[in-house]
Predict the structure.
Amino acid sequence: EIVMTQSPATLSVSPGERATLSCRASQSVNSNLAWYQQKPGQAPRLLIYGASTRATGIPARFSGSGSGTEFTLTISSLQSEDLAVYYCQQYNNWPPFTFGGGTKVEIK
Amino acid sequence: EVQLVESGGGLVQPGGSLRLSCLASGFTFSSYGMNWVRQAPGLGLEWVSHISGSGSTKYYADSVKGRFTIARDNAENSLYLQMKYLRAEDTAVYYCARGGPRIDYWGQGTLVTVSS
């Protein structure tokens, strides 16, 4: 089973500033990585797939990069509505699908 | 518009059973694999089970293997999860989610609480 590790656990960022979230896989997942946003009390929403492709309707301030074992989600200019927990998930070697533990983004 | 609506959650005693349902709309249901993913209170996401579009292939997390059964009815655009021998650690919000390998749409979830 591929283990996904996210860092940091919590990130506090001022509005308008850049937020950088990291995700590491225990072995290569190529580019088969997705990022999800989960706002308080809501279901997860797909942000990025294929490591760097934005899903339909996702604002351009969200971008993904990386391949193999190291991945990054960047929010270029944080908005108040971006308060959420962000999860990475690999779908290269499944089952099982495996998720990272999440990064909570707080507004400073 | 893709919609996934779960139902069937509730309070059940340890050792009991429960059947979850997910009604899908807005897409050709039989063309997509479907999943159940759960989230224990205050914790992260855990994949539970996957079923292929035809229903011929099923996968389970080790934590539920032998206790949970996934099924689908393509004529009714519905996904199911039969849960037996429930344990306290099965307490979670259960989400129906479309996809495989990539999961792209999620329902709003249904809460299952296992407690005496």
Notes: Chain A touches chain B through 24 residues (CB under 8 Å).
